[in-house]
Amino acid sequence: MKKSTIDNAETAMDEQEKNGLAPDQPDSLEERGSSIPNSQEEENRLASEFVRQIVSLIEEGDNQAVYDMVAPLHPADIAELFAQAPVEIRRPLAAAITDLMSGEVISEMNEWVREDLLKSLTGQEVANIIAQLDLDDAVVIVSELDAQKQQETLQALSSEDRAAIERALSFPLESAGRMMQRNLVAVHENMSVGDVIHYLRQNDDLTTDFWEVFVVDPSHRPIGTCKLSKLLRMPRHALIQDIMQPEQTLIPVTMDQEEVALRFQKYGLISAAVVDESGRLVGMITVDDIIHIIRDEADEDILKLSGAGDGDINEPVLDSYKSRVRWLITNLGTALVASTIIGFFEGTIARMVELATLMPIVAGVGGNAGSQTMAVTVRALATNQLTASNCVRSITRELRIALLNGLTVACVLGAGTWLVFHNVLLTEVIALAIMSNIIIGGLAGVLVPLTFDRAGSDPAVASSIFVTMTTDAMGFLTFLGLATVSGLTGA
Amino acid sequence: MKKSTIDNAETAMDEQEKNGLAPDQPDSLEERGSSIPNSQEEENRLASEFVRQIVSLIEEGDNQAVYDMVAPLHPADIAELFAQAPVEIRRPLAAAITDLMSGEVISEMNEWVREDLLKSLTGQEVANIIAQLDLDDAVVIVSELDAQKQQETLQALSSEDRAAIERALSFPLESAGRMMQRNLVAVHENMSVGDVIHYLRQNDDLTTDFWEVFVVDPSHRPIGTCKLSKLLRMPRHALIQDIMQPEQTLIPVTMDQEEVALRFQKYGLISAAVVDESGRLVGMITVDDIIHIIRDEADEDILKLSGAGDGDINEPVLDSYKSRVRWLITNLGTALVASTIIGFFEGTIARMVELATLMPIVAGVGGNAGSQTMAVTVRALATNQLTASNCVRSITRELRIALLNGLTVACVLGAGTWLVFHNVLLTEVIALAIMSNIIIGGLAGVLVPLTFDRAGSDPAVASSIFVTMTTDAMGFLTFLGLATVSGLTGA
């Protein structure tokens, strides 16, 4: 390995003993290492028994008992408690534990749960919560408020906080400017390690959530970074310019959050400097904000592919209905295309009604082959793995897989058809039809998302409608068409 | 906001000027802030023109030119270059830039690309690469090797490295024990800030990738943590026990990586201590390893839902074929269920062949409604949002959405059917059928994944087969069944 894998902790302990600081062993410490409270099940969830108890205590009006149970929880667990509790319990719960409702609890909360809770508060009350938050969390919450509450809240904030939030809101939705912290540590390259430590010790109001310091030139442009671990390692007299890492990944303030997340992933960043158009350092993004985005963006792709909109289980029923029904109606439209094609062959079906029994198999399996390819393609596009350099190669690859899949499925389905119907021509027709539909599905699964991506649209949104329409329509067309022209139905 | 949002960088600069360290302004520094090399397009991708140049230089055998172009790249970009380059170019490319093939390049590489490259190396050569890596990355690579190459590689390693890797490999696949670093900084609570800084400065072989120090008791159990930013802020004489944060999230060494990732997300962790069965500190997991897991786990769900297996665009064709064809054959089996149901109604269809034209609409739209609900449910389960506490509520919620969707789509489809066929009974039959199938889809979409989850299986793997089978079968059954019993076809 790069460095010794000996457990360095032991070294630290040994050294300390050498220094004569004999360790003492208070028994009571034994328990302190364990931090998973009883309120939790093993898998990071609040125990449902715990939630039930809270709910029944709220119903009994025993707010003090509720407070005592909730007080030891981590803010993230309190936030989760609200999501787990039934809707009608949430406001009384918030009232019972008012002074535990810290900014952290609010910002960790599921957005729909939070939106509902904040509706019951005045602009002044929301402003009091906002005032405890980091800028990026504050911006998220303010942007979720309706226009009037947003105005009230902004008015109730200090002019400094208001200006910071309004500036952040002026950046595009989901851009780096909305996610960044303005509270960061920037130093000059001529400072020594000792100067920096002195500066950090003297300034109590600096953030504690930073993992590297940014080195800037006199016009405030980033010229390097220095990890805190490095700062701690170097002698006090060392100059920052000699120990800083001069290359760094800069984030333009208008960059989309998905691109920011990809950059963090690719370069393994812990934090990164955000710069404005003229290259000046205006903020910092840290990895903890990125984690939520990576999950959200991947979730978005799953949900978009299935047309489920925002798809959160806490979303109000009417919102879910609106986004889903739009998709179902669109789907109805594309189903009509397939239906129309079947309509052309009503005569053929009337002569051999078994075709109606078999045709959904051809369409369905082709659709599945298309969905497989599409899922792979959409994710490869989203993670920048599929680019102009390897796009032809990817299409060829999918075609080869589709050929193999098509041959295999055609053999299986053909054998089955022959065993049931003892009709050679029908066997040939269905085998040929399913093979070509699997190939069509494979091609559509890669070409449709690629085309949307090239055209600048999100391939996750509309691809599956087009792919399914293609495999349905072509499945019915090839199967019923081949049945007609082959003379299978004797027409 | 929690702390002043004034840009603290300015404060640092001002203070420095007060200290008399006048900033100088070398012009050449202006360029140093910009770190996006020409080799990149705006969106974190290698420019395809750059890749093309490399490929043609390799083909011409101009290795020196290739080396000069690749040398300035970040290791993550070199790794990406291999994925973008055609397969036959990859080994000559590796040969042309041998001494740029650092451990970091190898560990950043797409696993399929890496596997192919490592095949051409001897165990000794792989061992030389492994020796440069952090333990967690080394473990990943060793576990990917085939049995024989794995043995050769382990033999060629130093006994210390071999022991560390073998110990990690003894933990279950995808567990915390496989992901953890053993190289961490642990200190005793009686040490002062000055002691810790002294210890860090004296020990050159410590890792630089750490963001907090772990505080342990004499039997090496974690009792607290201290962020480096806090360490830098506190006076030298402060004792660690007074400034450490006593609560912390401990990761059991056998915990599944998905649970580890959820814990990092929920509690916003940068690093966490890994403990063995007896609660002793045995390793550390850092957030940069978690980011990959979060993305991979979400990607896995998308790909599993569509039956696309591992689904990477770099996976060998035969591997993709094997995982996908298994799914298609399974799908063929479930399609037979639907087909059999249609078979029962051949008489009905023969009497009114339009039914064959309309029936795929009922099945398809119901299937879509099921997929929407399923995607929401699978993600809510994966992110621990859907638990015993809110499961009944979620089912009710989906039922209400399904009712609204069903009513709306039934009206639209009914109106369309009436306009085309002017047949009141047919209109009633199709409207009733699609409404009930959308409700069935909505229920199946939440109940199927919930059942798999309760039974301890991964709901993403098999849910979509069962949901589609249900909506197909029930769609045909309700539509053709209603058509038969209503007397629509005059039977």
UniProtKB/TrEMBL annotation, chains A, B:
CDD domains for the chain: CBS_pair_Mg_transporter
GO molecular function terms noted in the UniProt entry: magnesium ion transmembrane transporter activity; metal ion binding
GO (cellular component) term, any one: plasma membrane
Region entry Disordered, spans: 1-43
Membrane topology category: Multi-pass membrane protein
A UniProt-annotated Pfam family: CBS
The protein's role, per its UniProt record: Acts as a magnesium transporter.
Name the UniProt record assigns to this protein: Magnesium transporter MgtE
Lineage of the species this protein comes from: Bacteria, Pseudomonadati, Pseudomonadota, Alphaproteobacteria, Sphingomonadales
